[in-house]
Amino acid sequence: MVKNNLKFEQLETASKKKKIIYRWILFLILGIFALYYITPLYVMIVTSLKSMEEIRTGNLFYLPKTINFDSWLEAWRGQLVNTTSGLKVDAGNVYLKNYFWNSVKMVVPAVAISTILGALNGYALTKWRFKYDNIIFLLFLFGTFIPYQAILLPMARTLGVLGLSNSITGLVVVHVIYGLCFTTLFCRNYYVSISDEIVRAARIDGAGFFKIFFKIMLPISLPILVVTVIWQFTQIWNDFLFGATFSFGEAAPIQVALNNMVLTSTSVKRYNVDMAAAIIAGIPTLIVYVLAGKYFIRGLTAGSVKG
Amino acid sequence: MIWLKRNLPKIVISPSCALLVWFVYGFILWTLYISFTKSKILPNYKFWGIDQYFRLWSMDRWHVSVSNLFIYTSLFLILCILIGIVLAILLDQKIRAEGFLRTIYLYPMALSFIVTGTAWKWILNPTLGIEKFFIDIGFENFTFDWLITPGMSIYTIVIAGVWQSSGFIMAIFLAGLRSVDDEIIKAAKIDGAGVVSIYTKIILPMMRPVFMSAVVILVHLAIKSYDLVIALTSGGPGTSSDMPAVFMTQFAFHRSEIGLASSSAIMMFLTVTAIVIPYLYSELKREDGKK
Prior knowledge:
The complex is a heterodimer.
Chain A: H1 2-49, H2 52-57, H3 70-77, E1 80-83, E2 86-89, H4 97-127, H5 133-143, H6 149-161, H7 168-192, H8 196-204, H9 209-220, H10 222-238, H11 241-246, H12 254-263, H13 271-291, H14 293-304
Antiparallel strand pairs in A: 1-2
Chain B: H1 2-34, H2 51-57, H3 60-91, H4 98-106, H5 113-123, H6 130-136, H7 153-178, H8 182-190, H9 195-206, H10 208-224, H11 227-232, H12 244-253, H13 258-290
């Protein structure tokens, strides 16, 4: 009897030890993956803080000897060169300041309009059922999947006819139109899960379409509106295809400008400025992600498990 | 007035529907028609037949694009799903600092493909990038020049693409794992099932819908890949890392071959449709079944 008990205790400590070892292996693997994801950001930051001399002599992972933000300034407002009339930005120099504001001017109206329309559409599709509303829903749903290459050419021509090619307004129009499918889908899927009873009761009390929307639906829509706004903001800020196809030169959004900056190497590649520029272009969406990560993930999954 | 009141929902949704029908479905039909014409720099509406498709499929550059798409899609799919599942299962073990780790795994998803491409282009730089690091720590003959090697540059796109998107697959699998009923797991444990067999025999088979969604999203993402290729390799060296999306924009906007470009766009559209329609069909059926 005593012997048996001893054996049992030994077994128990052995399995505890085993458990601890498993935990360590688990953390090790998770840590290695964390390293894999974080390393590029680390490399970007340290590179942006080094001088070109330091980049050439050191290597990718070394910390900068001194921290200087010259590359950031250069990426933001161009490289200053000595001219007869003092320090000036070189004419052929691509820098981000103007394009950053282009993107802001494009994102704000495009996100606002597409979100409002999406909420109204989703509400109309779910709470005011009418004939063929399912077919309309399917049209929106399939619209989220189409490869944009199939609409680029006619869109370019249409913007030309409307006199909107190469303008921020034109890009706002494009992003509203193709964002509508996503915003409508998100809101529709949210409103479907809300009980019809409230709406029915309000209708019996004589409330109309808009009154119900503003007084009842909108106040409870905050979670989905946050998800939609974040989704649209990230998509439009990060868009390159539409920006590169429908605009060039002065009206280009930031992603296009970043790509031009990296590609048009004048004489010497300045990797530090490239990295600073890439971080500047990524900061707005990163901030949104850090502040509202929960909603960001919810948007991703809402966009994935469709229908 | 009563008419207006009754039809208000339809009136509200109709502008959006009109936009959708015209700018999405109408435009696709326009592109389809142009792919049957001889259009060069300007659209030529005279019907020509399917010759553009024969031209397309006889071009080496198109074949390179398609085979690159195939390589990219299969590796991207396998790696993202593998990493996604492993990370999701490991994170599901009641880990301390789970939120922190999740934030790290998922932040690349917030970055654009242009930013991703710019960063990886520098890391994979053949002289000053990761190659120099390995030489510095003692591997004197270490070379890593995939970025400028035809036939290898497509794999650099895989590396960057997986880095950007795998965290997302982790997130949807984790959400799926969390929705599995605890009672089932408890019952299996009482029956003496080990952790491994609980996952492989019970939980993962239950995740089939999540798995399907992941596959469709990843394939769809891969077919649309454009930004990442442009930022990382610009389709180079030469045209060795071309993909259909890059091919299409090249011929549409730089080579003035809009008939040919349209036929390549239609090929992309058909591929996406062939994958998405069955998926949507099964998803909607599942939703109907729930009601």
